[in-house]
Specification:
With 455 residues, the protein is mostly helical. The protein has two domains: 11-204, Growth Hormone, Chain: A (Up-down Bundle), CATH 1.20.1250.20; 229-430 and 443-450, Growth Hormone, Chain: A (Up-down Bundle), CATH 1.20.1250.20. It has 15 helices and two strands. The chain has helices at residues 11-42, 48-60, 64-74, 78-101, 106-138, 144-168, 175-197, 216-229, 231-248, 254-262, 266-294, 299-327, 333-361, 367-400, 403-427, and strands at 449-450, 453-454. A two-stranded antiparallel ribbon has the order 1-2. A hairpin with a 2-residue loop joins strand 1 and strand 2. The longest helix has 34 residues, at 367-400. The protein is globular.
């Protein structure tokens, strides 16, 4: 007998999963921001060392398809989400302890840090992948854009709250204080996640959703192969990589750009980054509210918003680079950065909404595998994007000699990458028949595309 499908999430269910994102973000910000600063400033290490550790945690997230497949095969996602949060917390505590060892035992501390950041990457991958997969399965199509915005805004809230409250307890700095803050934040995150997940999945979902294979590794490889061979899934994987490469390449160079070209001091450049983040939040909220208000958080509509967000982000980056190159410090930097933030926010929400729509539109019991594949693509792009953006600026400054044209060149390349992503997004959801017709506005009806057929 086939069990009844699980009920869809209302707003309360979406917010509950958002609390898990808040918990995840609270731990991650300590590892990628606070501990990064401690290694460079308090320990006097080369910035490349924490940079490589953060890059390593992104590399480990290439395992995301495996975590998604595990939940697909087992039929339940809550244990994987909670287990991921626990592993993330263990990795955070280990990383903090490892950093405290570095002054007296450098190589032992560094080796333990590598293990710790592997746990951090695995925890983020397991929890994040299955949280989005559960959200994709249980959220009605008309609420997907709003759901994407809610969980991402709540994750940023985790960043902000931890930075503000946790940071106040770190002065004056000591490793004992850092260990205490990390332990308290981790304990709160685990508790909040446990309460948020309590009863969120029906017990009937505990039965295996797919047949177990005697060779689980072979079954996993077949699941990934099947997902990659799906035209829409493959197109979206490539789109995610290119768009997130452009999205992340600006992260490490915006503040140096403000300082070297526009003469901003440290405080002013930090405020500029905060202004961009506020713009991103505004873009997310406006996109989610508009999509929900008109009731069209559907496949074609979300694709249209994704393309528009990419084009707007490209325009803002091109203006940032070329405007500064042409007009120097007379270029209105703050309005340009706000526009970039809004465009990035609109792109991010619509892309995540599209990801959720496509995950639930594909084959049943493969949602986690698909979400894992896209999450792995995103992680690789994030790890590579920041490094490439900074490296290209260094090379351009070496060749050109002046900072303004060097940054202009890199921002222009990022803008062109966003335009390439927009072209790729146009192909996602297109059927073979569509390619034989002139382009038309996407249908407002929900299209679940599978093997070239709309259902």
């Amino acid at each position: 007998m086939t069990s009844a499908p699980a009920p869809t999430f209302g707003w309360l269910g979406i917010v509950r999963l958002g609390l898990i994102q808040t918990s995840l973000g609270a731990i991650v910000i300590l590892m990628t921001s606070t501990l990064n600063r401690v290694m460079v400033v308090e320990l006097g290490l080369a910035a490349a060392i924490p940079g490589l550790l953060v890059g390593w945690h992104y590399a480990v997230q290439m395992s995301r398809p495996r975590w998604g497949y595990g939940a697909d095969a087992g039929g339940r996602r809550a244990p994987w989400i909670f287990g991921g949060i626990v592993v993330l917390a263990m990795g955070a505590l280990m990383a903090t302890f490892a950093a405290s060892l570095i002054p007296g035992a450098f190589w032992a501390g560094l080796a333990l840090s590598v293990i710790a950041y592997a746990l951090i990457g695995a925890g983020v991958g397991a929890a994040g992948t299955n949280l989005l997969a559960l959200l994709a399965i249980r959220t009605p199509p008309a609420r997907k854009a709003a759901a994407a915005a809610i969980v991402w805004i709540m994750m940023i809230m985790g960043f902000v709250l931890t930075a503000a409250i946790g940071g106040s307890f770190l002065s004056p700095f000591s490793f004992e204080r850092l260990m205490t803050v990390t332990a308290v934040v981790s304990a709160i995150a685990i508790t909040v996640s446990a309460l948020a997940l309590w009863g969120i999945e029906p017990r009937s979902a505990a039965a295996p959703a797919t047949a177990r294979s005697s060779d689980d590794g072979a079954a996993f490889r077949e699941a990934v192969r099947e997902t990659w061979n799906d035209t829409q899934a493959r197109r979206f994987t490539i789109f995610v990589f290119v768009s997130m490469l452009a999205y992340s390449a600006q992260d490490l160079i915006l503040e140096p750009f403000a300082g070297l070209v526009h003469g901003y001091d440290t405080g002013a450049s930090t405020q500029l980054a905060g202004t961009q983040n506020m713009g991103t939040l505004l873009g997310m909220i406006l996109t989610a509210v508009f999509a929900t208000a008109i009731g069209k958080s559907r496949a074609g509509f979300m694709r249209l918003w994704t393309v528009g967000g990419c084009i707007a982000s490209a325009a803002a980056l091109l203006a940032l680079g070329l405007g500064t190159y042409a007009f120097g410090t007379n270029w209105p930097l703050v309005p340009n950065v706000v526009a970039l933030g809004i465009a990035n926010g609109a792109f991010a929400v619509s892309a995540i909404g599209s990801m959720m729509t496509l995950a639930s539109a594909g084959p049943k019991n493969r949602e986690g595998t698909r979400m894992g594949l896209w999450g792995a693509s995103q992680a690789i792009a994030f790890g590579l994007g920041g490094f490439l953006g900074a490296a290209l600026v260094d090379v351009a400054r070496l060749l050109i000699g002046e900072p303004a044209p060097a940054f202009a060149l890199v921002f222009t390349l990022e803008g062109l990458t966003f335009l390439a992503a927009a072209a790729l997004a146009l192909r996602v959801g297109r059927t073979q028949a569509d390619s034989l017709r002139l382009p038309v506005l996407p249908s407002s009806e929900f299209l679940a595309v599978r093997n070239g057929e709309a259902t």
